[in-house]
Structures are given as C-alpha cells and as structure tokens.
Design a protein that fits this description.
The complex is a heterotrimer of chains A (146), B (323) and C (400).
Chain A: H1 7-12, E1 38-40, H2 50-54, E2 60-66, E3 71-77, H3 86-90, E4 96-99, E5 113-119, E6 137-138
Chain B: H1 4-11, H2 16-37, H3 53-63, H4 74-94, H5 113-134, H6 138-169, H7 174-183, H8 192-205, H9 217-220, H10 230-255, H11 262-287, H12 293-321
Helix pairs in contact in B: 2-10, 2-11, 3-10, 4-5, 4-10, 5-6, 6-8, 6-12, 7-10, 8-10, 10-11
Chain C: E1 2-7, E2 19-25, E3 28-35, H1 43-48, H2 52-60, H3 67-82, H4 88-116, H5 120-141, E4 150-151, E5 154-155, H6 161-185, H7 189-195, H8 203-208, H9 213-218, H10 225-228, H11 249-272, E6 290-298, E7 301-309, E8 315-321, H12 323-335, H13 343-349, H14 354-357, E9 363-364, E10 371-372, H15 376-389
Helix pairs in contact in C: 2-3, 3-4, 4-5, 4-11, 4-13, 5-6, 6-11
The chains are: A alpha+beta (146), B mainly alpha (323), C alpha+beta (400).
Bound molecules: iron/sulfur cluster (2 copies).
C-alpha cells in the first residue's frame, strides 16, 4: 500500500496535451482499409446477385426495371447496413466497394437509401480467389448517386 | 455611507454577486484541473477556455422543469435549497477578506467567529440530510443517512484540527489568528499536520471523492439529490460551489496566514490561496477512489481524530514553551 | 427495518437492463434476486432463417465487446460441419484477434471497475490506453467494435509486414502500461480498500455454482477452455492459466490484469511465428447434416454454441450459452451479506454482458414450481387480465 500512488502520474499529465480530440472541430482520419459505407460501381456489375444473397442485414435490393434493356436498379438500404463488407467480398467483379466515411447519420432513414440504375455490364468475373482481397478504399464516392 | 457598507458586503463583495462569480469560477477551475489531471480537456467551448460552463449549467438548470415529488413535504422540500444557499453565503461574510485591520471588530468579525463559521459550515450537511429525508425516495433516504453517518466521522477531527492553530494564536477571532501568523510565518509549519487533516475533512464535508458517498451515482443514483430538479438543483449546486469557496477561505485564513496587504493585494492573495487549496482538493479527488461509509467512520476515528488530538497536544506543549 | 431496493432495470450502475432486487437492512444486503428478460432479442430464432455466412455476422452481434468470441465459436463449429480446416496463417490471425479482444475487454472492465468504485482517474487512464488496442483492431480488421474478420474457412484479411512490426511495437507500450496498472490497482489504498474482501466466493461455491472465466479463476479454480480443451492453435502456444486465491473482487481484478499480460505473450508468439500462406479456404455453401458443440474461452468465460445442421444452407438450430449466464448464480451468492455500496462492484466483477445472456423466456409457476413455456398470445392475454384486475392499483406506493 502506498498513499497517493497515482499522484506522480497525475501531475505528470497536468500540463500535457490532452489525449482526447476536440471531436466535431478536429477529426481523426480512419485507417487504411476502414469499412465505411458500401457503394456500387455500376460499370462492372453483372447482376449476379451474390451481394444480395449474402448480405446479412438484407440491405441490398436488386430490382429488374426492364428485361429487354437489361436495366436494373440496385438499392443499398444504408439504414439497415451493418458495414460488414460481406458484399464487397462476395462480389465477383469488384463492383461493390467501401468508402471511408464515418459520419453517416441522417435525419430520416429515407435519406440513407442509395440507389443506382444501370444496364447490366458484361465483364468476365475474376476467378474466385480463396482469400478475398481487402476492399479497395476509395476517396471518391459515387457521383451518379440517387 | 455607513449603512451602505453592510449592504455592499451582503450583495456585492464578498456577498452574493462576488460569490456567484467566484463560486462558478472555482467550479470551473476544479473541473478543469480534474480533467487535465486525467489527460482530458475539461470545459472548453462555453466562453473563453470554457470559463462560462458552470454559469451555463446554472442557467440551464434554472430554466428546467421543477418537479416536486407527490409524497414529499412540499414546504421543506422547497425551502431547503434557499436556506442552504443563505447559510453558506452568510458564512462567507465571516471570512476576513474585506476588513483590513484585525483590531476593529464589527458584525462580521468578532471574538468567536471561527466557531460560528464552523457551525455555519455544518448546517449544509444537515440540510443535505433533510433534503434526502424529505424527498422520501429510497435512494435519497439512503443518501441522507449516509450524510449523517459521515458527519459523525469527520466533524470532530475537523473542529480539532481547525481549532489548534487558533489555540496557538490564543484568539477565537479569524482576523486575529491570521494576523498572528502573518507576524510569525514560521509557526505555520507547526500546523501542517492539522492542515492535512482539515483538507481531508473538508473534502468529506464537500462530499467529493473519496467521500462522495451520499451521492455515489453507481450505487444510489443521485443519492440525496435524486428528486431535486430545476431551480432547486441549481441552488444546491451553487451552494456546493460557494461552500467550496468558504471552506477553502477558512483553511487559507487559518493555515496559510490569511489575506493581508490591503484591498488589492489582499484580494489577489485570497484568490491565489483559495485556488491553491482547491487545487489540492482536486488532486485528492483525482488520486483516490470512493470508499465505503463504514470505512469513512473508522478511518476518521482511527487516524484523523488521534492525529488531530496529537496536533492539539503539540500546540499546547509549544504554547507552554513559548514566551 | 428491511427494505427492498431495486437496482435496475434502469440504474446508472447498469449499462444494460437487468432487475436486481436487494433486501437490505441498513447498509447490509440480506437477500438478492435477479430478474432477467428485459433485453431478449430472439437471436437464436433469427439465426434459423439465415445462411451460415450471414449468421457469422449475426452471432458477432450477440455481444458488443466479445463480438469476435461469438463469431469464432460459431465459425469453429461451422467449419467442422463443413469439413474444412482453416489454413495455419488464417488461424494465427483469428486467434491474434481473439487475444486482442481479450485485452480490450479486460482493460474495458478494469476501467469500469474503477468507475464503479468511484475511481474516475483510473477509469480515464485505462480507457485512454485501451485505445491502443482498439487502434490495432481497427487497423487489422477495418472497424473498432465488430471486426468481422472471421469467415467460414479462415479470416477475411491478411496483415502485411509493416502492420506486423507496428503491432509488436504497440504491444510493448501496452505491456508497460498494464504493469503500471497492475501495480497501481494493488497499491492505491482507497481502491484496494474498496475491492479487497468484497464479493467473497469460495472455491467450493465457485465449483458448485458453475462459475466460469475470471470469476472462477479468482476463486482458485483453474478452469480455462484454452488449456482444458484446446481449440485452434492453443495447444501449441505456451501460456499459463492465471488464478488468484483471494476469492474477492481484488482477486478478479488481479486475474484479469495477469491474463492481459499473458495475452501479450501469446500475441507476441503468434506474430513472431506467423506462418506464410493463404488466410482462408473456400467453403461450400451447404454443410453435411449433423450437430456440433463448439467451445471457446471468451474474455468473460466459457462460451458455448450448439449448431445443428440439416444439410441446407441454414442451420436448423443455434443455441448460444454466453458466459455471463454461467455466472449469475454465483453473483447472488456473492451479493449476500455485502454492503449496498458494493453492489455495483460485485455485479460488475463478473463483467456482465446482459443482452448476451438473454436467451429465452421460461416462466416458473410459483405454486407448482413447474416451468412452462408460454406462447405470445397467451402472454398478451395474461397481461390484459392483469391490467384489468389491477387497474385500481395504479397509484401504489413507491417502491412497488
Ligand atoms: S456492408 Fe454488409 S450489411 Fe452493408 S450492404 Fe454490404 S453486406 Fe450488406
Ligand atoms: S454488385 Fe457485385 S455481387 Fe452484387 S450483383 Fe453486382 S456483380 Fe453481383
């Protein structure tokens, strides 16, 4: 037992910079490979529906708009998404990706839905690798979002 | 002019207005130091360096809904915060910050004022007990009984410790005690053990860690204050702040030689010495963990009280040898 | 005068809802009663409607702190059903994350114990240093809480050489800090005075009440699934089971800190002997029919998953026994004859994870003592009947 065993450690920090960050004013950047929000890169989506099938939160919905034109709409319900990146792992053509945004709160759950309308791509799926690569982080979120 | 002076004392300095400003400042200081000791930021954004945060908290609480429990004694429940505030503000009048000369006595400085001040400082404890008891909540009741149980522990050592320098100075008047030690600063060293004891006791009186037992939130929610809300809670918080100022003022007068040097320098000394004591209290708050109420009592009677008696003996012996 | 004090379902000491009723006399607890069921989420039922890969993420969400424990327990079981063995490197990384999680969970607990004892500075410092573990986990897996690193057949992400050395460096920092807290936690008088002798659970009681994890080990029962029934790589990693013989909250604190120090050893071994190769093998979608019990030493104790497969891509039944459930009986024994002031500490000392332990509602008829499972419609009818009967008693005196 030692009285005041903590005091030296406490005093040492009295004039040190705080360990906490003044959050809304200063922000830390997430590390590489951070799992942010999923988004679609529609140019390479072959509508194999692997992401829809594997998504544990049933957050991905693919609807066929016109069979003749091969037009589809893929909606990511971000209000349900649990940011597990399974869709990225399941996608055979790298069409599903993750960005590194972490401030994704919204006032309404409808603001959180992201949808893409596109024509099915004709891309050869890469050989299914046993070890799925880490999702490619991308700074640019999709522009045709809506 | 003569009639105006007491009014000035009561309302402006060292009365309510000054107490409000300085009390909130001390709370800010305490919070900031506590936070920095823990490597955090503390209040940062309200006012410069978060200086206005306690004021903002006060204003916010004043604007909040004020709920009185159905079963509570309404009169008592409502009166307690106001009475408590009045008591501690009155106690402040006795701290010799304003009166420069130790000879002239008046309504706020008389022989025996140290006893009166100590008793005024005991009243808040009773008020907390009544507050807990009158709100009839189970947690409040437990908190209230804890307040009283603790009182039996720390009150005697506190009195003994504060009175031993008075004994050495041979006066029961705060201004004279301060003047005595200003003349013989070395004698302050004799009272160092009493200073340490009374710091611990004041910490207990103010119900701060390790003695924040009556409102230990992880055990009994808000304790004594569980049912208080809005204006009443704001008053209680202000009361605690002012109690902090008064207690540290008392300790500074008795153990650190008071605040000599006229209005200006005396004021600066008041600020510096009270802040020093508040810093020590904050350090104690940061360095310890809350103990149990039975541990408080046994600690107080096993260590604090014997030490205080020892100090008293030392002072008496010293007085015998002193010219 | 005996009074009943309700702790919970809403109380500042509780992070999750649970009902504790204490019968106290003065400050001393005479009897304790535990009521569960405020946080039932129906995870097991949901699991029956999800494929194995989806269930991995579902089981991860059983607990927010030992998330990896549940998903690993599930993955271990599923891998046996799928008849695949994850590659060595994948296993090393999986159990590296396990140990990181143990460190983060124990440091979190240490901070919480400080907070419950009113030692807020300790809490702040421990949690500050816990951020290092969280950063390592975020770096490895891409997220702080739900790492989602497991997949059936291995792990989803690999680490590179730079990350490996960085983790080793950070572990050295952590080791120094943890030794400091071990020293501080056992020397600061007010803290030790609060913890020592509190929540006594004798070795015999710990055995007979089936305590698990650090709670049992602090009562000198060397029970650790990693040693008793080694899974994964634990039969080749050298480590010790930490025990204490003080049988109180102080012992539980010391056991946890020592375990953290052991975890650093394990992690260093794993990182220094990391084999090369792939991190996962591809799993088929459907397992063979069969059933399996998978055991795992989570930070809080033994975690058990029972999985039954019927040959489809969804499990027929998943049963989860979270470690907290094993410790409830012991908690009641610990609370008796304690002080009110010690309730939060004793309860927190089992490191309760309440919503993990909430599985199914079983009603016991207090007259016949016969348990019965009640259907939802029946429950609603009962509630309606009760409300009709007690409508006049709305203004009953507090506490109820
Ligand atoms: S990140 Fe996970 S939850 Fe979100 S859409 Fe992808 S698979 Fe679904
Ligand atoms: S995003 Fe990928 S997985 Fe999903 S449908 Fe398109 S190609 Fe298939």
């Amino acid at each position: 037992m030692r009285i005041g065993a903590f005091i030296p450690e406490l005093l040492r920090h009295l004039f040190k910079k705080p360990a906490t960050v003044d959050y809304p004013f200063k922000k830390l950047s997430p590390p590489e490979g951070f799992r942010g929000t999923p988004y679609l890169h529609p140019e390479t989506c072959i509508v194999c529906r692997a992401c829809e099938r594997d998504c544990p939160a049933e957050a991905i919905e693919i609807v066929e708009l016109s069979a003749a034109e091969k037009r589809f709409r893929l909606t990511i319900h971000n209000d349900r998404c649990i940011h597990c990146a399974q869709c990225v792992d399941s996608c055979p053509t790298d069409a599903m990706r993750m960005d590194d945004k972490y401030e994704i709160a919204a006032f309404s759950r409808w603001d959180l839905k992201a949808a893409w309308e596109y024509v099915r791509a004709v891309v050869k799926p890469k050989a299914p690798a046993p070890a799925p690569a880490a999702p490619a982080p991308s700074a640019n979120p999709p522009s045709d979002n809506g | 002019m003569a009639a105006l002076k007491p009014l000035l004392y009561v309302f402006v300095y060292p009365g309510l207005l000054f107490l409000f400003a300085y009390g909130t400042f001390c709370e800010w200081f305490d919070r900031k130091v506590y936070a920095r000791l823990q490597n955090r930021m503390g209040p940062t954004h309200t006012g410069r360096w978060g200086l206005l945060q306690p004021v903002a908290d006060f204003v916010k609480l004043m604007a909040k809904e004020d709920v009185v429990p159905e079963k509570a004694d309404k009169g008592l429940f409502t009166a307690l915060p106001v009475v408590g505030l009045a008591v501690v503000a009155t106690a402040m009048l006795l701290v010799p910050v304003w009166h420069v000369s130790p000879t002239a006595s008046g309504f706020n400085s008389f022989s025996g004022d140290i006893i009166v001040l100590l008793y005024l400082l005991s009243l808040p404890t009773l008020i907390f007990f009544l507050a807990g008891w009158s709100s009839t909540n189970l947690f409040s009741t437990v908190g209230g009984t804890r307040v009283l149980t603790m009182l039996f522990g720390y009150e005697v050592p506190l009195f003994l410790a504060v009175l031993s320098p008075a004994l050495l100075a041979g006066s029961w008047r705060l201004a004279e005690i301060a003047a005595f030690y200003q003349a013989r600063p070395l004698l302050l060293l004799v009272n160092l053990p009493a200073f340490a004891i009374s710091l611990v006791c004041v910490q207990a009186k103010l119900e701060r860690t390790p003695f924040d037992i009556p409102h230990a939130e992880t055990e009994i929610v808000g304790g004594t204050f569980t049912e208080f809300s809005g204006k009443k809670l704001a008053f209680f918080r202000l009361m605690t702040d002012i109690e902090l100022v008064v207690s540290s003022g008392l300790l500074a007068t008795v153990f650190l030689g008071g605040f000599p040097g006229g209005v200006g320098w005396g004021f600066v000394q008041f600020i510096l010495k009270t802040l020093f004591i508040i810093f020590l209290l904050s350090l104690m708050r940061a360095a310890t963990s809350r103990i149990r109420v039975d541990q408080v009592v046994s600690f107080a009677w096993r260590f604090l009280a014997p030490a205080a008696v020892g100090q008293l003996l030392l002072v008496i012996l010293l007085k015998g040898f002193m010219p | 005068m005996k009074v009943q004090i309700p702790i919970g379902p809403q109380h500042p000491a509780l992070k999750e809802p649970i009902g504790l009723r204490m019968t106290v006399e003065g400050e001393v607890i005479h009897d304790a009663d535990l009521r569960l069921g405020y946080n039932h989420r129906g995870v097991e039922k949901v699991a029956e409607g999800r494929s194995y890969i989806q269930n991995l993420y579902l089981t991860e969400r059983i607990c927010g702190i030992c998330s990896h424990s549940h998903s690993t327990t599930f993955a271990q079981g599923a891998e046996i059903l799928f008849e695949i063995v994850p590659p060595k490197r994948g296993q090393f990384l999986r159990y590296l994350v396990s140990e990181l999680e143990r460190v983060h969970s124990h440091l979190l607990w240490l901070g919480v114990a400080g907070h419950e004892a009113g030692f807020d500075s300790f809490f702040m410092y421990v949690w500050r240093d816990r951020e290092i573990v969280m950063d390592i986990l975020e770096m490895i897996s891409g997220n702080r809480v739900h790492y989602a690193i497991n997949t059936i057949g291995g792990v989803r992400r690999d680490i590179d050489e730079a990350q490996r050395t960085k983790i080793l460096d950070l572990l050295a920092v952590l080791r120094a800090r943890t030794s400091f807290y071990l020293n501080l936690g056992t020397t600061e008088p007010s803290f030790v005075g609060r913890l020592a002798g509190v929540g006594y659970l004798s070795k015999e009681d710990a055995m007979s009440l089936c305590a698990v994890g650090p709670t049992a080990r602090a009562s000198n029962v060397p029970r650790d699934v990693r040693k008793d029934d080694p899974y994964g790589i634990y039969d080749e990693v050298p480590f010790e089971v930490c025990t204490a013989d003080t049988c109180d909250v102080l012992g539980r604190t010391v056991v946890r800190i020592k375990e953290v120090l052991q975890s650093y050893d394990i992690m260093e071994y794993l990182l220094r002997n990391l084999p090369a190769g792939p991190v996962a093998v591809k799993a088929p979608r459907r397992p063979k029919p069969g059933e399996i019990v998978s055991r795992y030493e989570a930070p809080r104790g033994e975690n058990i998953h029972y999985i039954k497969s019927n040959g489809t891509d969804k499990p027929e039944r998943l049963k989860v026994r979270a470690p907290t459930l094993g410790n409830y009986a012991a908690t009641i024994a610990m609370l008796k004859k304690g002080f009110i002031a010690d309730i939060p500490l004793i309860f927190a000392a089992i490191d309760p994870c309440i919503c993990c332990a909430e599985r199914s509602v079983e009603l016991v008829d207090s007259r016949s003592g016969r348990p019965s499972v009640v259907r939802w419609s029946e429950l609603r009818r009962m509630a309606g009947r009760r409300a009709a009967r007690d409508s006049k008693k709305r203004n009953v005196e507090w506490p109820l």
